[in-house]
TrEMBL record:
Residues 110-124 have a biased composition (Low complexity). Residues 292-364, 879-951 form the Bromo domain. This is histone acetyltransferase. It comes from Chaetoceros tenuissimus. SMART domains: BROMO, KAT11. Its EC number is 2.3.1.48. Residues 571-1198 form the CBP/p300-type HAT domain. InterPro entries: Bromodomain, Bromodomain-like_sf, Bromodomain_CS, CBP_P300_HAT, Histone_AcTrfase_Rtt109/CBP, Znf_FYVE_PHD, Znf_RING/FYVE/PHD.
């Protein structure tokens, strides 16, 4: 029984028409048209189209010219509107006629006319003569059959369908009964898509046609009126038989010629080929799991609970239950051997739903629609491996291979795949509108010359002319930004075997491109080993006589198996990393948790946990924190000014990195990694900050992933408490979409968690730790450090006279990042200072426009900070003067065409800048402000000659400013500031040493008592939760923790639901508005603690995601808390505290020696992974990336740690200039521009240092990337 393959409708029409006409007319037939169908199947228009189809078929035996003329004449005779039809393009008309004819046949079959061939009006004889096409040289044993496709309901596209035909039903004269194909298509629910469009011709057909006919054949299909039940059974058996045959062919292709290799190499080759076969099914399955219309509630994502639904006959009707969740688990664990098995289980899921539920049931309809949706996507997957169609004839041709300058059309003998794409370097937009999102492909962007920041095309117009810098570097102008386009293509690199001369992927062969010598490389097939020979003197024990056997998960198997431990003792073995008591305890707890959850035998033996980094670090506290926050201790109190101690300018901590590895196919794969910071606080408290955590979706068994990650964190928290740490800080912040925290490039199916989902995940972690007695209390950062300041400042008799006391200093913590963000936005906002016009009703000025400080600061709640006094004077008096307009903003020399301005004026200054710096707390003393004010007017008088209007205005304004400053200093005398002795003639000189820090306050002469910020201290502030309520909520699980974090802001518990309505904008938070208003007093004067209030508002709005967990036991314990203390002692009893290093580095304790390498910092590891293309999106790449990282963990000084310049061969530091590579595929040659088609693209890596980049003649092909790690 031969098989007849039916292609899509569009290919059908092109196939019919392209087989009839010469090349000029064939090109016209490539265009598409929309078929218009008549509702009456017996109408004259449909009968006419049938005659026209006969005319099309008869044209095959004619010459090209005769065929064209014949079709035109027949069409003109059959159509009443001859003139209008002739005007219409011929190819569109012919395609329209065939489409109408097919639709008419379909409507005819659905009518009440009997299905017999004799009575069917659609029964026609189609004679096809292909003798004139034997010169094409096609295979005479291959039949190329264009037929109408199967129209699947609720489907926007057509499917590729297969059916069988019997050659014995062919008529003696070689004609074909067209109604038979329509009859077979009626059984469309049993037909399944296939990727083959050509099958062998039977001998009895070829005898009447002749073997010399190479292009087409005469096919005969006879309709039968067999019952639907019998045809369905036959189709089902045939489908199963075809699937089994295809699966056997697929498995044979995967396991071809690998039995002669050692077991570990067989595992490696099998895993590569199976993963390649399954990779395309993952995105399709993900679309089914998250379908918005037919699977919105996840109906098909979990098993049918027939017991809960009391479906007693479910197993009888559906003896093989299946769901998409089970398919996902097996697919992502690489349990399947081929995509055919995946498709079979997906179809089984929907077939079960349609078999058990009646046709009109919603579940039946949803399953039918999803199955049709799957068949469409699966047909596209199969079409990629099917032979393409000839654009002229619509016939199958030999496949066109991918061709580029990297692969040269080759196929890797290890994975049986050709060129593979990689992810280019990550580009993150630093603009406020994008909020750290990834810059999309083919979008222009702008970057700084040092590569530290990039802005997308959307955020670039809003940038100021002078860009704010995070450090104390040179001034950066907007005009100096480099414009580039994100169009880089990165592909996997190849290497040639010196023995068999075959090319293989470097990732498939575990080749380090920076260390390996290409001239001596031997591929694994010739070497009979996966592990390459040892490098750099590292011992390789794979050739030892005694081979150990260890448990490992294997691709294609669900349970772990014992395999040869060929990885033992090599540079790719994670077990040889340095051990310590922390990692040993964490690994022990993870294995115990896996055993307690009934994991398969040997699964716990595949896990390895190591501390991969443990080093002393120091971070510099940002200036914004130093100037706007204070410590509790007073620094001094002299000359009537009280100054509080500033936060330390730097902070010491110990950074640790913990990684979990799992053995898959005999190789270690990094699954999980976290970075923590351990602090020795100035107040004597030891704190732990969970800085970064990241994982990839490769852990097996998949059902244990979250539980194992929870256990890793809980075990580390327990070790921290045992070592004397009192608090644990967590900021639940997910990465931006497309970004990674530690492991570069996650699997495409692994979605970035939302803020709410990550928050709930941490609730489960904390709840698990509370159950073991590790965590004793949970608070938000707002409740821990900001609530007392917030509530005391709102009291009626509160006097806020200083800045907020500094919370715990942790590098990368939320409140520090938020303070820097608010500071930067305020700096750009206040640089465009308010240009106040003179007003006659200004209460702060007298009739002569002099400043009245007693009126400005008469309110007891007014600020007592000297810096705020000066800023009020500047804003309401000096900058509001009628002659101050030319001095409010920086001089725009380019707009005014002052070419020599910057040559004459070396230090530009303006009043707006002085005001913003005064409000931002950037001045230390009053003398600095006076000098900058004088600089403003001296610059104007220096550039403009005497007699110039600007020169005269500057002179008058400087006299006015001096007069107003003298009035302010007299007011300071009345407030209690004591002038210092000085010999300078300047009347302002005695006040030069007055502190302009925002944390400095004036001590009144009448009342020298402390009027610090905390007038209303914590004892008078009522707590929202009582101790009993807090203790009760603490043990209620994740729900109770969520209530504790939200506190009195209960709206945070339902925020996710309130913003779900479509079309409504998110309401702005009232809390933030209230906090900003608190920064301004009743007189409209901004307080010195304005930044503290704005940061406080952000902290309160995000209080539910910033955790402060207490590890110390409470002084007074309830009965439950006493039991939890015993549970903690039981949990931690196996931890060796003496063998663990602490912050003091006691000589009695063992301190592991970790070599500083690329894993020393989180951004360094991520940056190195991007440079070396070490991705974790597939298991194949994850194994290679883990092997390379392990190599550099053990060899920190090996080649490749630092990028080298391709020209001068020197190590590059600070900035590397990376060439933008653009791949070119020969398959798209006709669609590219002429300049692109003729170009030769070299995809080799090219990096330049700064000096070589300046010498390059093609600077537009390079863009800067920051290099953060340094030579050791």
């Amino acid at each position: 029984m031969a098989r007849l393959k039916i292609v899509s409708q569009e290919n059908l029409i092109n196939g019919w028409l392209c087989a009839l006409f010469d090349p000029p007319l064939r090109e016209m037939t490539n265009q598409t048209s929309t078929p218009q169908t008549s509702l009456d199947p017996t109408s004259s228009s449909n009968l006419d189209t049938s005659n026209k189809r006969k005319a099309l078929c008869r044209c095959v035996s004619m010459t090209n010219a005769e065929a064209s003329a014949k079709v035109v004449s027949d069409s003109a005779c059959c159509d009443t509107n001859t003139k209008e039809d002739i005007k219409e393009p011929l190819h569109k008309k012919l395609k329209q006629e065939v489409a109408d004819d097919a639709t008419a046949d379909e409507l005819q079959r659905s009518s009440t006319v009997p299905e017999s061939v004799e009575s069917s009006p659609t029964s026609k004889k189609i004679k096809i003569d292909i003798s004139s096409y034997s010169h094409n040289g096609l295979n005479p044993n291959i039949a190329y059959v264009p037929l109408t496709s199967l129209d699947i309901p609720n489907s926007p596209m057509r499917s590729v369908v297969s059916c069988d035909y019997a050659g014995e039903q062919s008529d003696p004269d070689g004609t074909t009964n067209a109604s038979t194909a329509n009859s077979v298509l009626d059984k469309k629910q049993e037909l399944q898509p296939k990727d083959v469009i050509a099958t062998p011709i039977r001998s009895n057909l070829s005898s009447s046609i002749g073997l010399d006919a190479a292009a087409m054949f005469q096919a005969t299909i006879d309709a039968t009126s067999a019952s639907k039940a019998s045809s369905s059974a036959v189709s089902q058996e045939k489908l199963e038989r075809e699937q089994n045959e295809a699966l056997e062919q697929e498995l044979q292709q995967i396991t071809t010629d690998i039995s002669k290799y050692p077991q570990h190499l067989q595992l490696h080759l099998k895993s590569l080929r199976i993963e390649s076969s399954l990779q395309a099914m993952k995105p399709l399955l993900q679309k089914l799991l998250t379908h918005q219309h037919h699977n919105r509630r996840g109906t098909f994502n979990s098993p049918v609970d027939y017991i809960a639904w009391n479906l007693k006959d479910y197993l009888k009707i559906c003896p093989n239950p299946m769901d998409l969740g089970a398919v996902k688990t097996k697919l992502y664990s690489n349990v399947y051997h081929s995509h055919i098995q995946v498709a079979k289980d997906i179809r089984l899921t929907f077939d079960n739903a349609m078999r058990y539920n009646p046709p009109k049931h919603p579940v039946h309809e949803a399953a039918s629609a999803l199955k049709a949706y799957f068949e469409e996507g699966y047909a596209h997957i199969l079409a990629k491996s099917a032979p393409p169609l000839d654009p002229f004839y619509g016939l199958a041709l030999p496949p066109v291979k991918h061709q580029c300058k990297t692969c040269n059309g080759q196929t890797c003998p290890l994975c049986n795949k050709g060129c593979r794409n990689l992810e280019p370097n990550l580009l993150i937009c630093a603009g406020s509108a994008c909020s750290g999102t990834k810059i999309r492909k083919n979008i222009s962007y702008y970057c700084t010359p040092d590569g530290t920041k990039t802005w997308c095309q959307r955020c670039w117009p809003s940038l100021p002319a002078i860009l704010p810098r995070d450090d104390d570097g040179d001034v950066l102008y907007k005009k100096d930004l480099i414009k580039r386009k994100n169009e880089e293509d990165v592909v996997e690199r190849w290497i040639d075997c010196s023995k068999c001369t075959r090319s293989v992927h470097q990732m498939c062969a575990f080749v380090n491109e920076f260390v390996s010598d290409p001239s001596t490389f031997v591929c694994p097939l010739c070497m009979d080993s996966v592990i390459p020979p040892s490098v750099d003197g590292v011992k390789n024990e794979t050739n030892s006589k005694e081979k150990k056997r260890v448990y490992s998960f294997v691709t294609g198997q669900e349970l772990p198996e014992e395999v040869e431990d060929v990885n033992f003792g090599t540079v790719f073995d994670a077990r040889t990393l340095e051990q310590c008591s922390i990692s040993d305890f964490m690994e022990l707890k993870v294995k115990q948790r896996m055993q307690a959850m009934d994991c398969p035998k040997g699964s716990e033996a595949t896990v390895t946990i190591r501390v991969i980094s443990d080093n002393e670090k120091e971070f510099g506290v940002p200036d914004v924190v130093l100037r706007h926050f204070r410590m509790a201790q007073e620094k001094d109190c002299r000359n009537g000014i009280k100054t509080f101690q500033e936060p330390p300018s730097s902070h010491q901590y110990r950074s640790k990195a913990v990684a979990m590895f799992q053995r898959i196919d005999g190789m270690d794969v990094m699954i999980f990694c976290m970075y923590v910071q351990e602090y020795e606080g100035a107040d004597g408290k030891k704190r732990v900050y969970l800085a970064y955590i990241d994982s990839v979706d490769h852990f097996r068994p998949r059902r244990l992933r979250s539980a194992i990650y929870h256990e890793i964190l809980a075990a580390y928290f327990a070790t921290a408490r045992a070592r004397g740490f009192s608090t644990l800080h967590i900021w639940a912040s997910p990465p931006s979409r497309g970004n990674s925290f530690v492991l570069w490039t996650h699997p495409h199916s692994q979605r970035t968690p939302t803020k709410e989902r990550l928050q709930a995940w941490y609730h489960n972690v904390i709840s698990h730790s509370i159950n073991h007695g590790i965590i004793t209390d949970v608070k938000s950062l707002y409740e821990e450090s900001f609530e007392d300041f917030d509530k005391s400042s709102k009291a009626e008799d509160a006097i806020v006279s200083s800045t907020l006391q500094c919370p715990a200093l942790l590098e990368g913590d939320f409140w520090i990042e938020e303070a820097s963000r608010v500071y930067s936005s305020s700096q750009s906002r206040w640089s465009r200072s308010n240009n106040k016009k003179p007003s006659s009703d200004n209460e702060l000025l007298d009739s002569e426009k002099n400043f009245l400080p007693h009126e400005a600061f008469k309110d007891p709640k007014s600020s007592s900070c000297p810096a705020i006094h000066v800023s009020v004077l500047l804003e309401n008096c000096i900058m509001a003067h009628q002659d101050a307009s030319p001095f409010l903003r920086p001089v725009n020399a380019a707009a005014l065409k002052l070419k020599d301005y910057h040559d004459v004026i070396k230090n530009p200054m303006d009043l707006g800048t002085i005001f913003s710096q005064c409000m931002l707390g950037e001045y230390d003393t009053f003398q600095e402000i006076v000098e900058d004010l004088q600089l403003v007017f001296n610059n104007a008088m220096r550039y403009n000659p005497q007699g110039h209007p600007i020169h005269n205005l500057a002179k008058n304004m400087w006299d006015f400013v001096q007069k107003q400053l003298a009035i302010l200093t007299k007011f300071w005398d009345t407030c209690g500031i004591i002038a210092s002795d000085t010999e300078l003639p300047d009347p302002l000189a005695p006040y030069y040493n007055v502190s302009m820090r925002l944390s400095s306050i004036i001590v009144s002469k009448e009342n020298t008592q402390d009027q610090s910020t905390e007038t209303k201290q914590s004892p008078s502030v009522a707590k929202f939760f009582s101790d009993d309520t807090r203790s009760k909520l603490l043990f209620e699980g994740p729900g109770g923790i969520a209530k504790l974090m939200a506190g009195e802001d209960t709206h945070l518990l339902t925020r996710r639901n309130t913003n779900k309505e479509i079309g409504k904008k998110k309401k702005k938070s009232k809390k933030r508005k209230e906090s900003i208003c608190e920064a301004i007093n009743s007189d409209g004067i901004r307080r010195e603690s304005w930044l503290s209030f704005e940061v406080l508002g952000s902290i309160r709005n995000n209080r539910s995601v910033i955790f402060v967990c207490h590890l110390e036991p409470k002084k007074t314990k309830s009965e439950t808390e006493q039991m939890k203390l015993s549970d903690f002692q039981e949990y931690i009893k196996e931890f060796d505290v003496k063998g663990c290093p602490n912050l003091q580095g006691s000589n009695q304790e063992v301190k592991p020696k970790f070599k500083p390498s690329v894993q020393e910092t989180r951004h360094g590891l991520l940056e190195f992974s991007q440079y070396g293309n070490l991705q974790f999106d597939t298991i194949r790449r994850a194994k290679y990336s883990t092997a390379m990282l392990l190599y550099y963990f053990k060899n920190p000084q090996a080649d490749g740690v630092l990028p080298k310049c391709s020209d001068c061969k020197c190590c590059i530091e600070n900035v590397r200039w990376h060439r933008i590579n653009k791949s070119f595929d020969e398959r798209r040659r006709s669609s590219q521009l002429l300049s692109l088609r003729t170009a030769c693209f070299d995809m080799a890596r090219k990096e330049l240092c700064g000096d070589c980049y300046m010498k390059s003649h093609q600077k537009e092909d390079f863009y800067p990337i920051r290099v953060s790690f340094r030579a050791l």
